[in-house]
Specification:
Length: about 100
């Protein structure tokens, strides 16, 4: 379910906890798959990365395919085909994210 009245944002540390990976892995995935992510996921130098719910669907697919030992090329093909990961119930827990609603 999408929230139209409020936007949830996630920091790198949120994704590290969700996917049990390092900050370096999040940066690597963000750079490698930036074509499928929001502009705030790969900001200019000196800015913090901010991820959206749509970005989480991309990261979920990346994590699932990496767990299956898929290559970056195979993941790119899946993302190009429109595939996205299904967020586990845990990700629907908004307490893990930075709420930007007013």
């Amino acid at each position: 379910m999408r929230y139209t009245a409020r936007m949830t944002q996630y920091k790198t540390s949120d994704l590290q906890r969700m996917f049990d990976v390092s900050g370096e892995t999040i940066r690597t995935w963000s750079n490698e798959f930036k074509a499928y992510l929001s502009p705030t996921a790969t900001p200019r130098k000196g800015r913090y990365r901010i991820f959206t719910d749509d970005d989480l669907e991309v990261f979920t697919l990346i994590a699932q395919l990496k767990d299956q030992n898929k290559t970056f090329e195979e993941i790119h093909l899946a993302l190009q085909a429109g595939q996205r990961g299904d967020l586990p119930a845990l990700f629907n827990d908004r307490s893990l994210a930075t709420d930007t609603s007013a």
